[in-house]
Amino acid sequence: MTPQAPGPAYRRLSVEERRSQLIDAALSLFAHRAPEEVSLDDVAEAAEVSRPLVYRYFPGGKQQLYEAALRSAAEELEQCFDEPREGPRLARLSHALDRYIAFVDQHATGFSALLQGGSVVETSRTTAIVDGVRRAAAEHIYHHLGITGPGPRLRMTVRMWITAVEAASLIWLDEGRQPPVEELRDWLVEQFVAVLTVTAGRDPQTAALVAALAEDA
Amino acid sequence: MTPQAPGPAYRRLSVEERRSQLIDAALSLFAHRAPEEVSLDDVAEAAEVSRPLVYRYFPGGKQQLYEAALRSAAEELEQCFDEPREGPRLARLSHALDRYIAFVDQHATGFSALLQGGSVVETSRTTAIVDGVRRAAAEHIYHHLGITGPGPRLRMTVRMWITAVEAASLIWLDEGRQPPVEELRDWLVEQFVAVLTVTAGRDPQTAALVAALAEDA
């Protein structure tokens, strides 16, 4: 409406920038409050915009904003496991876990609310997004371990470990972020090697992997 | 209304018996169909009673019946872990797992739907029931292992393993109940010992437990 370029404080955001700004504001609120305790008013206030503007971007209201925020967090989470494929395999897994734990730390309440279930904002769509992240994490882990075509026993072992890591994250948040990050990370990696070693006794593919990990070290 | 005792086929059930009959009928349906695909009509038909009778017992409708069925299943599931406290500790854990896997086998679809989340029948109440079962399972495991006052590292290890066992159950159902029950059970017990052994390196209480388990064997 105005031909002059607005000053930086009033710079007009592009549609994508505005959308990201609202999602970021929502994620910062979800980090400390359960999704059901965050209103669109709160998001408008945190983003310093009007409520109608929030509704213009998310006409489906809170549920739509929540799902958009969840998708954005899911993309960020998938990046955590996308480590360059070089260096010792377990070191790469450690780096991925460091980033994962930092993500959990940052999104604390929203992460817990999502994974603990029973939330009013949980739907088959949100469940599908979370399952997508789990699948992506498993794929990244296979890549880091140099596995193509994981068999059923190796797949079950990896999926069980991913679930156990999620459980550990929730307990870690619950217990005031104890043990310290480095200890948690090393402990989780050691548990992974331990359960792989158990599976190796029942599965030649996993046995070959465990032998390769020992050579790395 | 009639002074003669009715024949066995038409025996009038007590309130409690009728309630149990309806819950059993619901559980048998939930074993093969997702909760959202089971109507009160289906339950009435399976129990061979009228729909108004189902509503008389469960005036809150399908959600109330679902929660009652879930509570009944939760009690049964808690029993799985209530093994007599004698004999070698890991043998007791194996027996408990045998019963747990039989439970999963029997309640297949309902078990999956409940744990996979995003179901329309999932509420904070159903989540609380499931969490109650997890807590009870952890308590039974401490008893079997002869642990009083588990510290944070041992607690985290046990809770992670319980979650991993749940994940394994879901995958096992998904993959046509493979591997065979005995192999799955032994594999899960071996994984438990393996992760306890990892934790033993960081926690004296767990180290004492692992030493005691080795003496049992």
TrEMBL record, chains A, B:
Residues 16-76 form the HTH tetR-type domain. The keyword Electron transport does not apply. GO terms for molecular function: DNA-binding transcription factor activity; transcription cis-regulatory region binding. Residues 39-58 bind DNA. Keywords: DNA-binding, Transcription, Transcription regulation. SUPFAM superfamilies: Homeodomain-like. The keyword Ion transport does not apply. It comes from the Bacteria. InterPro entries: DesT_TetR_C, Homeodomain-like_sf, HTH-type_TetR-like_transc_reg, HTH_TetR. Pfam families: TetR_C_46, TetR_N. This is TetR family transcriptional regulator. It comes from Streptomyces shenzhenensis.
